[in-house]
Design a protein that fits this description.
Elements (H helix, E strand, L loop, with lengths): L1 H12 L15 E3 H8 L6 E3 L15 E6 L10 H6 L4 E5 L7 E5 L7 E5 L2 E2 L20 E6 L13 E6 L6 E8 L3 E11 L12 E12 L4 E4 L11 E4 L5 E13 L3 E15 L12 E16 L3 E17 L11 E17 L5 E18 L4 E2 L3 E16 L4 E13 L10 E5 L2 E9 L2 E12 L3 H5 L14 E13 L6 E15 L2 E5 L5 E5 L2 E15 L3 E14 L17 E11 L3 E11 L14 E10 L7 E7 L6 E5 L10 E5 L1 E3 L2 E2 L4 E8 L9
Parallel strand pairs: 6-9
Antiparallel strand pairs: 1-2, 3-8, 4-5, 6-7, 8-9, 10-11, 10-41, 11-12, 12-15, 13-14, 15-16, 16-17, 17-18, 18-19, 19-20, 20-21, 20-22, 22-23, 23-24, 23-25, 25-26, 26-27, 27-28, 28-31, 29-30, 31-32, 32-33, 33-34, 34-35, 35-36, 36-41, 37-38, 39-40
Length: 701
C-alpha cells in the first residue's frame, strides 16, 4: 500500500512526536524524584530503573520488537497463534483445526529456536521444547511482546530465532466469555482480578492484589478436507474426507498473588494446563486411535525491589510437564507406542540494574537451572534412567546513552555453561558457549529511530532430541548444539500523537547463518529422527505498519520476504531452500468501530513459496485466507455479542502446477491447502461469542 505510506509520512512531517520514554531493551525511565517523594525525601535526579509492568516502547530499544495489546481490536475468538501470525518476521505452523497444535518460527528459525515466556519465565528454556501455542489462553494476558533476534539480557537467553513474552495485566479487571461454534466447539473463559479493600492503586502503601483465570475448551475437530488419495497424477480418485480422531479437551488456569508496592513486591504465580487430544496423523496414514494426554505445571516465586538508582529481581521457578502417548495400534510410527514422558525444571534467576550515571546503566543477569527427563514404557513397565542436565547463564550488559538520549549503545557479554555429565552419553562433559551481542540505536529526528544489532546465539539439543522416543519421533544422542551468527538493520518512524492519522512504520533487513542446525528427517516408516543439518543461511526483509485513523479505523499490516539456503554439500539438498520457510508472507487486519458499540473487523493472510522437504520437490500450495468478525455491545454495562468466521471463502484447495520442478510440464492439479504437509486446514468455520466485561473496552481483558 504505497499510498498509505505516503499519507503517513506526510502526517509525520506535519509535526514531531514528543520523545517516547527512553529505555533500552524494554526498560523505561522514571524520575528518582517520584521514588524520593514516595519515601518522603525531597529532590532526586532522573535515573533509569526497571519497570517491567510497563509495555516496551519499540522506539526506545535497538532490538526489533513488536508489542501487540490484547484489547478490543482483536476478535473474541483470536488465539496466540493468530496474534503471532500478524507480526512481521514470524511464521506460524498449524496442525489442523480449532485448538490444534501450533508453534511459531521467527526469521526462518526452527520452532525450538524460539523461546516462549510467561511473565518473563521461560516455558521452554534454551529451546528445550516446542511450545504449543494452543495451550496458552490469549485473553489471560494484557499484551504479547515479540523480540526478533537480539533479545534483552534480562531473559538470560540467546535464542537463534527470538523471544515471545506473554505478559499478564498489571491492573486486571473482570471478564467472562462463552463461545460456541462448528465441529462441536465450546469455549468458556473467566478472568477475575481483585485487590484488598483500602489498598491504593498507585503508590506508596502496601497492598495485596491477585488475578485468577480459567479457560476451558472442547472441540470434535471433525472438519472436511480435500484428499487426493496419495495419487498426484490421478484426479479421478480425489475426494472429500472427514478428519477423524481430532477431538481436544483442555483446561488452562492461571493464578497470581502479589503483596507490596512499586518499591518492594513479592509475587506468587501458578499456571496449569491439562490437555487430552486425539492424534489424527497424516491424511495418507490416518491414526484413528492414537491419543496424547498432557499436563503442565508452572510455579513461580518472585521478589522485586527498587530504589532511586537500583532495581533488582530474584525469581525461583519450577516447571513440570508430563506427556502420555497412547499409540498401541502402532499408527504413528515405528517408535515406542505407549509411553509416559516426564520433564522437570528447577530454576533460579536474578537480574539487577544500576543507574550509575545519567548516561550509563550497567546490569547483571544470572540464571541457574537443572533439567530432568524420564521415560517409562507402559507396555513393558520398563523405566529408563533419568537424564539430567545442569546449566547456567551469566550476562553483563549496559545501556550507554549520549546526545540527549538520541544515541544508544547496548553491549551484552553473555555466556552459557552446560554440565552434561549426568546424561550418561559417551562424550558427556562440561561445555561453555559465548553469546556476545551489540545493539545500536540512533534517533537523528525525534520520530525516526535507526537500529542495528549483531550477535551470536546457541541452542543445545534438548533431552528429548537426544534420548526421546515418542512414537513418530526418536532421539539421537550424537546431536551437536546449534550455533548461529546474526545481524539486522532497521528503522522505525512514529507519527505525531495529536494528528488525525496516528501510527508507526517499521522496516528491517535480517541475516543469519546457523551451523549444525537440527532438523527432523523422516524415513519410509514415517518415523522422524533429529539430525544436524550442517550449515544454513537465511536473510530477508520485513515491514510493518500500524495506523489509527480518527479513532474509528485501525489497521495493522505486516510483510515478510525471506530467502533461505541449505549450504550442506550433499548434492540432493545443496543450495536448496530450507523446508517450511515461506518466501513471502503478508498479513493485514483492519477494523472499524463506533465507540466500541459496534466493531467490524477483517483479517487476511497470504503465504507462498514454502517447501515441505529438503529436496524441494514438494511445494505447498499458496495459502490465501480471510477472516471476519462483527461485535455488538449496545451498552457498556451489557454483554457484547460477536459472530466470527475463519477461512471466510471456504478455501481448502488451490490449483497448482503438477510438477513444479519440470518447466516443460504445464499440467495443473488440485492440491490441498495445508500449513504442514499432510495436515490440512479446515474450511469455513463459524463461531458465536457472548462476552461480558465490567472493565472498559480497549483495556486489559
Amino acid at each position: 500500500m504505497p499510498w498509505l505510506a505516503v499519507v503517513f509520512l506526510c502526517s509525520a512531517l506535519a509535526g514531531a512526536a514528543p520523545p517516547s520514554p527512553p529505555g533500552g531493551q524494554g526498560e523505561v525511565r522514571v524520575a528518582a524524584a517520584q521514588d524520593a517523594a514516595a519515601a518522603g525525601v525531597e529532590g532526586g535526579e532522573e535515573v533509569v530503573v526497571e519497570a517491567s509492568a510497563q509495555p516496551t516502547d519499540p522506539s526506545a530499544t535497538s532490538a526489533s520488537v513488536t508489542v501487540v495489546p490484547v484489547d478490543a481490536r482483536l476478535s473474541s475468538t483470536a488465539d496466540v497463534a493468530q496474534v503471532l501470525d500478524g507480526v512481521a518476521g514470524t511464521t506460524v505452523v498449524h496442525l489442523g483445526g480449532l485448538g490444534a497444535f501450533s508453534a511459531v518460527s521467527i526469521r526462518g528459525s526452527s520452532l525450538r529456536q524460539v523461546q516462549v515466556y510467561l511473565d518473563g519465565v521461560p516455558l521452554n528454556p534454551d529451546g528445550s521444547d516446542v511450545v504449543n501455542l494452543a495451550e496458552l489462553p490469549l485473553r489471560a494476558f494484557q499484551r504479547v511482546e515479540v523480540w526478533r533476534g537480539n533479545a534483552p539480557p534480562r531473559y538470560a537467553a540467546a535464542p537463534i530465532g527470538g523471544v515471545v513474552d506473554l505478559v499478564t495485566a498489571e491492573e486486571p479487571g473482570a471478564a467472562t466469555a462463552l463461545t460456541v461454534g462448528q465441529h462441536g466447539t465450546v469455549r468458556a473463559f473467566a478472568l477475575q482480578g481483585f485487590q484488598a479493600p483500602g489498598a491504593g492503586s498507585t503508590g506508596a502503601g502496601q497492598r495485596l492484589d491477585g488475578l485468577v483465570v480459567a479457560d476451558l475448551l472442547h472441540t470434535r475437530g471433525d472438519y472436511l478436507f480435500f484428499d487426493d488419495n496419495g495419487t498426484v497424477y490421478d484426479l479421478l480418485d480425489d475426494r472429500l474426507g472427514r478428519r477423524e480422531n481430532d477431538d481436544k479437551d483442555q483446561l488452562s488456569t492461571l493464578a497470581r498473588l502479589r503483596w507490596g508496592d512499586r518499591r518492594r513486591r513479592l509475587s506468587l504465580l501458578h499456571a496449569l494446563v491439562l490437555r487430552d487430544e486425539g492424534l489424527p496423523g497424516h491424511v495418507q496414514a490416518p491414526a484413528l486411535d492414537a491419543s496424547l494426554a498432557t499436563g503442565r505445571h508452572l510455579a513461580v516465586a518472585q521478589a522485586e525491589a527498587r530504589s532511586a538508582a537500583l532495581a533488582g529481581q530474584a525469581r525461583l521457578w519450577t516447571l513440570h510437564r508430563q506427556e502420555l502417548l497412547d499409540d498401541r495400534a502402532g499408527e504413528l510410527g515405528a517408535g515406542a507406542d505407549w509411553t509416559r514422558h516426564r520433564y522437570g525444571t528447577l530454576g533460579l534467576h536474578g537480574h539487577g540494574q544500576w543507574a550509575a550515571t545519567a548516561w550509563a546503566l550497567p546490569a547483571l543477569t544470572l540464571s541457574l537451572r537443572g533439567d530432568q527427563a524420564r521415560e517409562t514404557d507402559l507396555a513393558t513397565g520398563e523405566r529408563a534412567p533419568a537424564a539430567r542436565r545442569l546449566s547456567g547463564t551469566a550476562a553483563l550488559s549496559a545501556e550507554l546513552r549520549a546526545w540527549q538520549d538520541r544515541v544508544l549503545v547496548a553491549p551484552v557479554l553473555q555466556g552459557l555453561l552446560l554440565d552434561d555429565r549426568a546424561l550418561g552419553a559417551d562424550d558427556s562433559r562440561v561445555r561453555t558457549f559465548a553469546t556476545p551481542r551489540l545493539g545500536l540505536a540512533l534517533r537523528p529526528w525525534r520520530p525516526l529511530t535507526l537500529k542495528a544489532n549483531v550477535g551470536r546465539a546457541v541452542r543445545p539439543p534438548d533431552l528429548t532430541e537426544l534420548f526421546g522416543d515418542q512414537g513418530a519421533v526418536t532421539g539421537n544422542p550424537d546431536l551437536l548444539p546449534e550455533r548461529a551468527l546474526a545481524w539486522d538493520l532497521g528503522a522505525r518512524l512514529v507519527g505525531p500523537e495529536d494528528s488525525l492519522l496516528v501510527g508507526a512504520i517499521d522496516v528491517a533487513h535480517f541475516w543469519s547463518r546457523t551451523e549444525d542446525m537440527i532438523v527432523l528427517v523422516q524415513n519410509a516408516q514415517r518415523t522422524s529422527t533429529p539430525v544436524n543439518f550442517g550449515l544454513t543461511w537465511v536473510q530477508g526483509l520485513e515491514a510493518a505498519a500500524t495506523l489509527d485513523l480518527a479513532g474509528w479505523l485501525d489497521s495493522q499490516t505486516a510483510l515478510t520476504w525471506t530467502l533461505s539456503r541449505n549450504l550442506t554439500p550433499d548434492p540432493s539438498v545443496a543450495d536448496n531452500q530450507l523446508p517450511r520457510i515461506p518466501t513471502v508472507q503478508l498479513s493485514q487486519a483492519t477494523s472499524v468501530h463506533w465507540q466500541e458499540r459496534l466493531r467490524l473487523g477483517h483479517d487476511f493472510t497470504w503465504t507462498d513459496g514454502s517447501y515441505w522437504d529438503a529436496t524441494n520437490f514438494y511445494r505447498s500450495a499458496p495459502r490465501p485466507l480471510h477472516g471476519a468478525f462483527l461485535r455488538v455491545e449496545p451498552h457498556p454495562a451489557w454483554p457484547s455479542l460477536e459472530a466470527s468466521v475463519r477461512n471466510l471463502e471456504d478455501r481448502i484447495v488451490q490449483v497448482v502446477p503438477r510438477n513444479p520442478l519440470d518447466p516443460d510440464d504445464d499440467a495443473r492439479i488440485v492440491d490441498a491447502i495445508t500449513d504442514y504437509a499432510g495436515y490440512p486446514l479446515p474450511g469455513r468455520t463459524w463461531m458465536l461469542t457472548l462476552r461480558w466485561s465490567p472493565a472498559p473496552q480497549g483495556g486489559s481483558p
